[in-house]
Amino acid sequence: MAFQGQVLSVDEMLHHALATPETPVGVGVGVLHTAADNARDCRALLATTGSLDECWRFGILQTVDDYTSTVRRGGVGLGAEVFAEEPPPTGATRVDAAFAALACYLARRDGWDVPAWADDPSRRLSEPWYPAVPAIFRDEADRESPPAFRDRGVFITSRSLARA
Predict the structure, then answer these.
(1) Among 37, 45, 29, 90, which Cα is nearest to 62's?
(2) Count of beta carbons in the 10 Å neighbourhood of residue 112
(3) Which positions ≥6 away from 109 have C-beta within 8 Å?
(4) For residue 129, what are the β-bridge partners?
(5) How far are the Cα atoms of 81, 117, 128 from residue 139, in angstroms, in the given order?
(6) Structural domain tally of the chain?
(7) 89 found inside a domain
(8) In sequence order, which residues have a C-beta less than 8 Å from that of residue 132 and are 6 or more positions away?
(9) Reported pTM
């Protein structure tokens, strides 16, 4: 079936977007996706053909996106609820540690309580992990990794959590 909608120019789309009133923050919103949901997805990914780097992208970075979107729609308090349910084990202790590190990092950055599950000693690594950090940037990750990640053995660069 061929496209039957109307093709708008960029100017028309911008005009329409500016004329549409924004929904006030916190009105009629809820948490759509959680860290626990993404951990379950990582477990399924790892059980098939997934790698730890894929879990970093489709679990941890997806959780960054979900948190950011939730905060935008409902504020920081609602964003904290993305981490309210403890993410189940993924089958990869490195990824489990990264979920804890992310929860702690965002809680400290944005001023909400770190969930108790994020301080579980089983979510700390004895050997360092550099998720999706090429060897050439590992010294940079050693210097730049936020304490919440470093304390759990996960080393990232300042760009590792950046999203487009």
Answers:
(1) 37
(2) 16
(3) none
(4) 154
(5) 34, 30, 12
(6) 1
(7) yes
(8) 53, 56, 57, 160
(9) 0.82
- Report phi then psi at 102, rounded to 5: -65, -45
Query: Which domain range does residue 117 map to?
Result: 32-150
Angle at 134 between CA 144 and CA 154, to 5 degrees: 45
Two tokens, residue 40: 């379950």
- Is 87 contained in some domain? yes
What is the C-alpha end-to-end distance of the chain, expressed in Å? 32
Any idea which residue has 């990582």 for tokens?
Answer: 42
Distances (CA, A) of 141 to 53, 60, 77, 150: 16, 17, 30, 9
> What six digits make up the tokens of 104?
């702690």
Q: What are the structure tokens assigned to 16, written together?
A: 């329409």
Question: What is the spatial distance between Cα 121 and Cα 102, in angstroms, rounded to a whole number?
Answer: 15
Contact assessment for residue 145 and residue 101, using Cβ atoms and an 8 Å cutoff: no
Summarised one tens digit per residue, pLDDT across range 100-153 is: 999 999 999 999 999 999 999 999 999 999 999 999 999 999 999 999 999 999
